[in-house]
Amino acid sequence: AGIGKCVALDLARRNARTILACRSQERGQAAVEEIRAATGNPAVLLRLLDTSSLASVRAFAQAVLREEKRLDVLVNNAGLTGLPFAITPEGLERTFATNYLGPFLLTNLLLG
């Protein structure tokens, strides 16, 4: 939804292979289908990612590095605000993990 979906739509319109990294399988797949229909680009893919979980970030990065020949653009757009204080299973404050630690780790894991 929002900015991330708009960016993915624009990249797909430019005929780019576009990976949507989403927490929700259901919402992510709906976005993929909508973008494919709007652009005619079949190379729009869904991969599950929860940036609040460093294990999820590591698994996502390993899969991208294994499955993709190259990565030209990374858009770190995940974020949340205004939720009650919570600790992730890894012992991190949820907002900090989602907005900062997860994207930082992802970027570093995907760098050449």
From TrEMBL:
SUPFAM superfamilies: NAD(P)-binding Rossmann-fold domains. The keyword Oxidoreductase applies. Keywords: Oxidoreductase. One of its GO terms (molecular function) is oxidoreductase activity. It comes from the Eukaryota. Belongs to the short-chain dehydrogenases/reductases (SDR) family. This is RDH12 dehydrogenase. The lineage of its organism: Eukaryota, Metazoa, Chordata, Craniata, Vertebrata. The gene is Rdh12_1.
